[in-house]
Each structure stands twice: as structure tokens, then as C-alpha cells.
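Purpose: get a first structural picture of the assembly so the mutagenesis plan has something to point at.
Setup: two entries, given in the order below. No constraints added.
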Amino acid sequence: MTPKRALRVALIGRPNTGKSSLFNRLTGLNQKVGNYPGVTMEKHLGLAKLGSNTLAEVVDLPGVYSLHPSSDDERVVLNALTTTSEAERSDVVVGLADGTNLKTCLFVFTQVLDLGFPAVLAVTMVDEMERRGAQLDLPALEAALGVRVVPVNSRTGLGFDELREAIGSAKPSKQAPFFQPAGAHLPWLQKKQECIGAGLTYRAWLDGLSDPEFAAEVRESGRSPERARADEAIQRYRWVNQWLRKVYHYDPVRDRRAAARFDRLVVHPIWGSVLLFGVLFVLFQALFYGSSAPMDAIDGGIARLSAWLNAALPAGFFNHFLTSGLVPGVAGVLIFLPQIALLFLFIALLEESGYMARVVFIMDRFMRPFGLSGKSVVPLVSGTACAIPAVMSSRNMESARERWLAIAVTPLMTCSARLPVYALIIGLVVPNAPWMGISLQGLTLFGLYALGFAAALAGSALLNRWVPQQKSAPFLMEMPPYRMPIGRNVFTAVWTRSKSFVVEAGKIIVSISVVLWFLANSGPKGLPNFSAEYEPMPIEESYLGSIGRGIQPALAPLGYDWKISVAIASSFVAREVFVGTMATLYSVDGDDIAPVRERMAEEINPSTGKPYFNLAVGVSLLLFYAFALQCMSTLAVVVRETRSWRFALLQFAAYAGVAYVAAWSAFRFISYLTI
Amino acid sequence: MKLSELGVGQKALILQAPVELPVKLFEMGCLPGEEVELVFAAPFRDPLCFRVQGTLVSMRRELAELIPITEPHDA
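Result (C-alpha cells, whole complex):
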């Protein structure tokens, strides 16, 4: 008998049981990250070789404590097991149990067995288990569960051959069911069984208790759906405790005392804050400075490639398209890789070591009023370097709602691309004088950082209030034990994240760059002359220039002339392009800030006869760039992360709206005060 | 006495499982009759982290205020 499709294997277990380590071991780099329909949960799929010619498709399901979903995010696990779609159905389930803490891991595994799945139990962390003197009677546990139990070590690969073999020959448990609903539930269970046409009672039980439309019928049994679930929990734990006493011996008191002492230090109001601040500081420094050398190298390499192409190819349209359109577009993707790789390296280390859970724990009280979890400090802090890796880092958040809140507000943080614009404008309109001993210019820059942070938190709090909440999980989090990060897991995380950025967000970034190249290099008067004596088309004659002039009337209330409008239109690519475009428009050579600033300072407003760039125009511009989402790469990453163009476009529009109102109010207010 | 009143390092038994608690709590192993220990607490004693059935479970104080426990016995 040959199967029509690869065997589908689902990994199910509680969080922190080493599920992704086992997944990475089984599948290597043969994995892809997708999304579950309807929720922004990551779906990890991979291929594993079971035998010489059997291939299995492995799904790493999100970690859950029970098959009963407590939130919409957790529903994907139940769906993966009960779907009727032949293509999505799992054939075999591998349950995971942490060898240092078997008790609570067996809960969800016996639920899986009651669903009638052929299954294997993989016991992880066996090295730790042995080191701590825990003893497990394997044959007795196998007999009790009625399925194979395989101890594995994901660090060394020990036990994986046996695991692969056991997956291939997995059978349903002979000992199931481990839980039987009380007789009072039978009427509704029968009805549900008829509805879904499923034979097993437990399937109907799971379905009926998570179906809100069925709640009234369940209540006729005298128990609410929640109470019925609680009854199940009590019964199952009773079974587990009874059996484990016979097969598993572990007395961890000494290890626990030491771990608890360490934890009290980690969450200590002073020492804990010092540690957290230190970690975030190193993270920020690494992103900001550590990535600059590789970024310069990529920049230099691309410049050399462009120069080489330019010399090697005959002058003309194709040459110009390649060297000024396509290659810079690709460079615009690659340039973010060092920061993305560094950030995910950091996150993987924090997650793997167990410290991230402590960050969530410490920060929870502070982030709660804003609808964010403690985990959102990572995207927010990273956002002060660059929003692109920061938005991607929200992937590590478990709750879909907190995740989209973080994505929605992270680009408000003051990223490094805003700095050239801020430096140009602040130098132009803020006097270089001390105020009470503090540099006014420095104070302004600090104010802009604070503004970005405040805007992100306020935005999140507002969205959290306005957008109706679906069923969300209560804040109940398990603290994983501290563990040495596994190199393979860290590498896989960095690799898959970087790859998905290049492939998926990269597509969008390159396409937009090419379109913008076209808009900047052709105009209503036709294509520029691409022959040997090529001269770049003046930006004011291009389509991009026309767009800038076109939107100028709309920007006039903010105090912007056509030059600023053109620079705003062209800096949709990235904020720092504003400086380069202003340089071009004022016929200043190079992208250095000082000469452009000098030239701009000389600009006279024809209607007042005074310098054009006064405080009102300057503050208006600063606020505009603080809020407007002038970064196509961020938009591309948001599209990729939310799988929704609508989300990204709404976000762009909302940011533009806030930017407009803020810039307009500031311009009017300051003009009123100073004139 | 409620779970939220436990001091750091103190242990007690969970008395009962009120209906208004999230079922997830029970499924994580916090069941009547089990021993709980407050292992550590965040600044301002919120959230709190308990050991139940060998795992560390952290929850907000508002939730711990709903869980009745016996008088604490020190370790």
C-alpha cells in the first residue's frame, strides 16, 4: 500500500517542552513559515525523512496546555486535529513531554489519545532529567499510555532514529479513553455526534464545549461548558497523578531553591531593572552600531557592482534601469539584513535562555494600560533603531491582538532614518544656544524621541479601547526554567526570519523601488535621453516632481512650498531621501547635511521677505516626519507580517492623518505667536 | 485567605475552584488540593509567580485574588 500523500505529523505539547528544538532536529532547514487562515499565528511546516524513502510533513503546532481553546489563537491546534479536509488532516501526533516535569505535559497528550490518533510520546530534556536524578520507568509508562514513549535529546540527536521509526509505525492507544464524560452529558454528546458525523465521543465533547452556539444544549446537563472542562481537568490530573507516582520519581527540591533565589534577583525592583536596562541597552547598541560595518560593506559592494555594470554595459536605457533602478532596489532589501539577523539572534537567545518570559513578567504591570504585553518592549526598543526588524520581531508574541497592536504602533518610535531629517531641520530653525545650561537643539531631539515613544503608547491605548476585543486568553504564563540556548535553534530562527524577509518583503520593496525609479526618471515630457551622453532628468520635470507639485496645494496649509512637497513625495521610499532631494532641488552637490542647510537658510519667503525656514515651518516639518509613515520598506514588512494590504494602507493613512493635523496645528500656532 | 495574600516563599493548598476562574488555570494544573508556593513577585506584587505541580505559573494579582487557599505553612 502506497500512501497518496506524505504522512502528516503534528507536534503537540505544552509551551517550553522543547517542541521547536525537536522540530528543528527532525526537519533541519527544510522548513517554511506560513500563517494560519484568519489569525496572525505563525505556522511552521517542515519535511522530515522517516526512513530511506518515506517522507513526512511535520507541523509544529503552537504550544497549548489543553485541546480546549482558551483563545482564538489556540483554536488552530484543535482545528488541525479535527479538520475534515483530507489535505490538512494530521495522520500521526507526536506529543511532547519535558522529562523534568512530566506531570502537566501528559494532560494534553491523553486528550490527543482520546481523539483516537496514532501517537508517540517524545520525552525531551532527558539529559537534564538524568543529571537531576529523575527516574522514569519507560515500559510502565508505555503500558499505561498504550503507545510508544521515546526519550530524545535534541542537543545531541540521541533517540531520533527510534523516534522516526516510532512515527512510521504509530498506532492509536489501546488504553484510551482516559476520560469519560459523566452520564448527564450523553444527550448533547449524542446530538453533537450526529451533527458532525464523528464516531468518537471525545471528538463530540471537544467540539460541543468550544462551540458557543451549542452552550445552551450543554447546560441542560446541569454543567456549564466551562464547568465541564474543569471537571475534565480534575479527572485527567487524577489519572496522571495516580500513574506517575508509580513510574516517575523526581525530587527537585535543591535545584528549585537555587532557581528561585536566582529568579528573585532577576525580578528584583533594583537589580532586575538594572539587568533589563543593560540587556535592552546592549540590544540597542548592537542594532545601532554593530550593524553599521556590515551595512557599509553591503553599501560599498552594491556601489562597486553598479559601477562595474555601468562600465561593462553599453550606456542606455537598460544600463540606467539596472544601475539606478533594480540594483539599488535589491540593495534596499539587503541593507536591512544585518539588523534583522542581529535582532533575531538577540531574541532567540533571550527566548531560548528563558529570560524573555521574565521580561514579560516584569514589564506586564507597566505595559498593561496600553493593551500591550511585556514582550512588546522588544519591538518598541528595536524600533528606535529601525522599524523593519522591529515589526518582524512582533512575531514572537503569542497573542494575535497584542501582536497587531505592536505592529500598528512600532513605526511611531523614532528610527535612525529620521535622524538626518531631524538634524537638517533642527540645525536650521532651532538656535544653537543653551537654555538653562542645556543645548536647545539637543533638547529638541530628545523631545522628538520622547514624542515617538509617547505616541506609540498612546496609539496602542487608543486602539486597544476602540477596537472591540475578541475572546482573549487571560494572562497566565508559564515561566520556563533557565536553559543554555541550543545553537541550532538560534541559527534556524535567524536563518528562517532573514530568508522570509528577503523573499517576501523583498518582492514588494524591489517592485516599489522600480516603480519609483520610473516615476523619478520619466515625466510628462517623455522619457529622458538614455543614450551615451545621458543626463539625469531634473526631478522637477519628472512624474515624481509632478506628484509633488500636485500635492503642494494640500500641503500649503502646513507651510510647505513646492520644493518641500517634491521632497516629501520622493521620500516615500525612506525618510532620509528628503535630505538628498532637497540637495538636488537646491542644486547642492552631495548628500551632506551642512551645505544643504546653509543653502536652505538663505531661502527667502517672497511674501514676507524673511527667511523661509522659520520656526513654524521647521516644527511643522519635524512633526510631519515624526508621524508620517514615509518608509515603503516598513509598509512592505507590515504587509508581510499581517498578510493584509488593507492593514498597511490603513496604517499609512492613519499616520498621514495624524502627521497632517500635528504639522498643521504646530504651523498655525507658532505662526500666530511669532507674527 | 486568598492566593494573592501569600508571602514570598510561603506555601498553602488551593481550597476550591470558583466558577469565574479561567478554565485554562485548571488545565495548567492549578486544582483544588494542590500545593502552591509564591516563588517570586514582580515590583508592586503584580504579577505573581507560583509553583504548582512542579511548574512556575505567573498570573496577575486580580486573578490570584479570586483563588481561596488554606492558611500558609512555611517551607
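The longest strand of chain B covers residues 35-41.
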